[in-house]
From TrEMBL:
This is Kinesin-like protein. Residues 15-32 have a biased composition (Low complexity). GO terms for cellular component: microtubule. GO terms for molecular function: ATP binding; microtubule binding; microtubule motor activity. It comes from Gossypium barbadense. The keyword tRNA-binding does not apply. Residues 72-391 form the Kinesin motor domain.
Length: 914
């Protein structure tokens, strides 16, 4: 019937319905773009068929996208099938899944709601997980807080969805398993997982992992709300985490109600805290991703019409009140005008505050029953789910600084311990280089060596002990940090594969036991699939190296090796298995107890009888396995103790003796080395003393030689050296000889150099002298020229004077010729015209002759003046040259004098007889 409803085709009226006419039209991730289509006039269900798919894809691309992105709460609805009781009572279907995203009312077809996904009664929890939870889990593994909770009326299938059972594991075990798969698929990071488990019962917070942790307080800090004093357990495998949940379930308040034989009377919150950091050498200084994955199984709301009494009524009222507050908080969160959100009105909303207020991904799985008798409650759930759809969240990666992160604390501690171990391995004693040490150091070193010999033995022992202690501490810490076994095949970015390998829970979960333990139980072909313990390959422990080597040589050898070396681990493993089984038995026993109480009240109820039988069988089976495990443990202990005894009595003792022999041999070698070094030191000291004496005497000789004026001559110096040499000690003769020769050589080269200098100076002196001579010659020649010029000048001046006189005379004659006396003119006129004309003709001829003469003398005068000027200039130039020559001569003379002074000085300082 239910399947009929699930596959029921859309009714014709629906396609025209104003409600869900295009459920797949909205694929956005923002509520603002999310179309709201009123169906029944009251509510306004939204439609988004492909949204969940979109979000799923989004989660895969998270790395590529920003750390922040706006999303809505993923809201899904899961129908459970009608229960046998409901079927017996002839219940009808009131609500059904219409396609993948619509929930429709059977009796009022226009009343329909759209969600991210609607799951029909035949859907498996795995399918629900893939759509509603996987992206939250993967986000949490990447540092984004995640919350998944199941909401619905009592008996609607919340616990079935969240916890499930052996045949159909719920969201919680699937999430835990997925988290470990992600670790395996992310070799680039290392993880540390912690779990806590609490319940809110009658508004009291109890720690389910710690029975003593009752009525815990909720506190608040910058990061948000937290439960004070809650126990957190580091988990190493899904089996480990699930065994803790099973143990916690033992303490959960469960009771029988009219609707549910095992009704949850409290809300439970299972929190997986995930820390991850980059794996490898570059991890130092990198921020740590810290996130929490809250997996919540709410108690079911109960109809007020249901008659309950006593304790159940009280529980019911607390449950209803907190769920009502949850509804109010969600309404207010989606109402833009609300100023106050009443988170504090219930413990549940207080604890969910950071999730609901938008920091992280949220997935709400509403479980509903299709039965008509619960139609109203189902409708309420659907409306609640619809409201929740509109909460807008902002998923952010939480990056934290070192101090707050446990993983960093452990990593740092491991690093420091490893360094300490390395130091111990290297040993502290480092002998300094001989050439660097002084005399005092030698004595000190000698003393140290003597002391060291005495202390060496005890120190070696201490170091061995410290090494062992550090190794065990490193192993204990690294055991808590989980990395993928693919870490060595380092891939740059975690490539999320398509579908993951799936397997059911049970024996196979042991596969997730850490490397240290699984090696006892698994066959070789599965080895690479499992999460290993970080550091096993890094501890540098010889045992582990051997182990690796053995693994290379074949699994059988490796197992043999492991078995012989790590029998204790096998016992641990068996004990852990026993513990898990005991937890399960305890859980089943309490269920059985409650069922038997129920059976006493309803003796005719066959369902209870069947369940009791099935659980009893399971308990019996598990008890048998526990007994088997106990036997195995006992056997292992026997084998281990025998092995220990025989090993200790034979191989270990032999090994120890061998070690002891080795150490004493080492000691002997070191002592011999020490003796040799001491002898060498003594010899060196003697040599050193001898050399010091030689140096002192040479110094003395040198100072004596410097004081005496003639000692610089090679001969006398050699003589003196020779004389001194004779006085030298025979032991130091050779070095003395070397020093003397050296000294002589130095002096000779110095003298040679000085000689060269003197020759150079003499040459330059000769050059200067010849230059001087030349200049003197030039100077006398210039003087001769000057006097010749002066004579010529004098002659010229005389000639000029003569010419000038002549010129004056001629001028006077010319003037006389130009102006004849009046008397002479009158007589000429009176004595005849012809005589006068002849005279006139003679006078004209004589005047032109004079004019020519005058012009010529003027020209001559001018040329004389020019020659005179030229001579003056030449004379001035010659005089300047004479002056220059004089100056040059004076300068050269001065230089020459300086040189002579220099030569004299050199002669004096070198004592060279030049
Ligand atoms: N999807 C489902 N398929 C098959 N059986 C289911 C499904 N959901 C629930 N059931 C069965 O219905 C019964 C009630 O389920 P469950 O205990 O999970 O309800 P609940 O909502 O947790 O109730 P409560 O709030 O009171 O604890 C159980 O016997 C469970 O096995």
């Amino acid at each position: 019937m239910s399947s009929r409803r699930e596959s029921k085709p859309k009714k014709s009226g629906l396609s025209n319905s104003k409600a869900v006419n295009s459920p797949s039209s909205s694929t956005t991730s923002s509520s603002k773009q999310f179309p709201e289509i009123s169906i029944d006039g009251q509510s306004s269900p939204a439609s988004s068929s492909a949204r969940s798919k979109l979000q799923y894809i989004y989660s895969d691309n998270l790395h590529a996208d920003a750390d922040r992105s706006k999303e809505n709460v993923t809201v899904t609805v899961r129908f459970r099938p009608l229960s046998p009781r409901e079927l017996r009572q002839g219940e009808e279907i009131a609500w059904y899944a219409d396609g993948e995203t619509i929930v429709r009312n059977e009796h009022n077809q226009t009343t329909a709601y759209a969600y991210d996904r609607v799951f029909g009664p035949t859907t498996t929890t795995r399918q629900v997980y893939d759509v509603a939870a996987q992206h939250v889990v993967s986000g949490a593994m990447e540092g984004i807080n995640g919350t998944i909770f199941a909401y619905g009326m009592t008996s609607s299938g919340k616990t079935h969805t969240m916890h499930g059972d052996q045949r159909s594991p719920g969201i919680i075990p699937l999430a835990v398993k997925d988290a470990f798969s992600i670790i395996q698929e992310t070799p680039s990071r290392e993880f540390l997982l912690r779990v806590s488990y609490l319940e809110i019962y009658n508004e009291v917070v109890n720690d389910l992992l710690n029975p003593a942790g009752q009525n815990l307080r909720i506190r608040e800090d910058a990061q948000g709300t937290f439960v004070e004093g809650i126990k957190e357990e580091v988990v190493l495998s899904p089996a480990h985490a699930l065994s803790l949940i099973a143990a916690g379930e033992e303490h959960r308040h469960v009771g029988s109600t009219n609707f549910n034989l095992l009704s949850s009377r409290s809300h439970t919150i299972f929190t997986l805290t995930i820390e991850s950091s980059l794996y490898g050498e570059n991890s130092e200084g990198e921020a740590v991703n810290l996130s929490q994955l809250n997996l919540i199984d709410l108690a079911g709301s109960e109809s007020s019409k249901v008659e309950t009494t006593g304790i159940r009524r009280k529980e019911g009222s607390y449950i209803n009140k907190s769920l009502l507050t949850l509804g109010t908080v969600i309404s207010k969160l989606t109402d833009g005008r609300a100023t106050h959100i009443p988170y504090r009105d219930s413990k549940l909303t207080r604890l969910l505050q950071s999730s609901l207020s938008g920091h992280g991904r949220v997935s709400l799985i509403c479980t509903v029953t299709p039965s008509s008798s619960n139609s109203e409650e189902t409708h309420n759930t659907l409306k609640f789910a619809h409201r929740a759809k509109h909460i807008e969240i902002q998923a952010e990666q939480n990056k934290i600084i070192d101090e707050k992160s446990l993983i960093k604390k452990y990593q740092n501690e491991i690093r420091a311990l490893k360094e300490e171990l390395e130091q111990l391995k290297r040993g502290i004693l480092t002998i300094p280089q001989l050439h660097d040490i002084g005399e005092d150091d030698i004595i000190l070193l000698k003393q140290k060596l003597e002391d060291g010999q005495v202390k060496l033995q005890s120190r070696l022992e201490q170091e061995e002990e410290a090494k062992a202690a550090l190794l065990s501490r490193i192993q204990r810490l690294t055991k808590l940090i989980l990395v993928s076994t693919n870490a060595s095949q380092s891939s740059r970015l975690p490539q999320r594969p398509g579908p993951r390998r799936r397997h059911s829970f049970g024996e196979e979960e042991l596969a997730y036991l850490p490397h240290r333990r699984r090696d006892m139980t698994l066959d070789g072909e599965n080895v690479e699939l499992y999460v290993s313990l970080k550091g096993n390959a890094e501890t540098g422990c010889d045992t582990l190296k051997e182990e690796k080597k053995a693994r290379k040589n074949g699994l059988l050898n490796w197992l043999k090796h492991r078995t012989s070396l790590k029998a204790v681990d096998q016992i641990d493993l068996l004990r852990e298995q026993q513990k898990i089984l005991s937890g399960e038995v305890a859980l089943h026993s309490s269920t059985l107890k409650r069922l038997s109480e129920e059976a006493a009240r309803n003796p005719q109820n066959e369902q209870i009888q069947d369940k009791m039988k099935r659980i009893s069988d399971e308990i019996r089976g598990k008890n048998e396995r526990i007994a088997l495990l106990e036997k195995q443990i006992a056997d292992s202990i026997m084998v281990s103790s025998n092995m220990e005894k025989s090993e200790i009595s034979q191989s270990t003792v032999a090994e120890l003796v061998a070690q002891l022999n080795e150490k004493s041999f080492e000691l002997e070698v070191k002592a011999a080395d020490n003796r040799i070094i001491q002898e060498q030191l003594n010899r060196k000291i003697c040599e050193c003393e001898g050399l010091q004496e030689t140096v002192a005497s040479l110094k003395q000789q040198l100072s004596d030689a410097l004081e005496s004026p003639n000692v610089h001559s090679k001969a006398s110096y050699s003589q003196q050296i020779k004389m001194n040499g004779l006085q030298m000690d025979k032991e130091v003769a050779a070095p003395k000889e070397i020093s003397r020769d050296l000294l002589i050589k130095t002096q000779v080269t110095e003298i040679e150099e000085l000689k060269h200098k003197v020759v150079g100076l003499t040459e330059s002196k000769d050059q200067l002298e010849s230059q001087n001579h030349k200049l003197a010659e030039e100077s006398s020649y210039a003087k001769g020229l000057a006097s010749a010029a002066a004579v010529e000048l004098k002659e010229l001046s005389e000639e000029v004077a003569k010419l000038m006189n002549k010129n004056e005379r001629l001028m006077a004659e010319l003037a006389a010729a130009k102006n004849p006396p009046t008397q002479r003119r009158t007589s000429t006129v009176r004595n005849g015209r012809r005589e006068s004309l002849t005279k006139q003709h003679d006078q004209v001829g004589s005047s032109s002759y004079l004019k020519r003469e005058l012009a010529m003398s003027k020209e001559r005068e001018l040329s004389y003046e020019a020659a005179l000027l030229e001579k003056d200039q030449r004379e001035a130039e010659l005089q300047r040259k004479v002056e220059e020559s004089k100056q040059r001569e004076a300068y050269l003379e001065n230089e020459l004098a300086n040189m002579w002074v220099l030569v004299a000085k050199l002669k004096k300082s070198n004592g060279v007889d030049t």
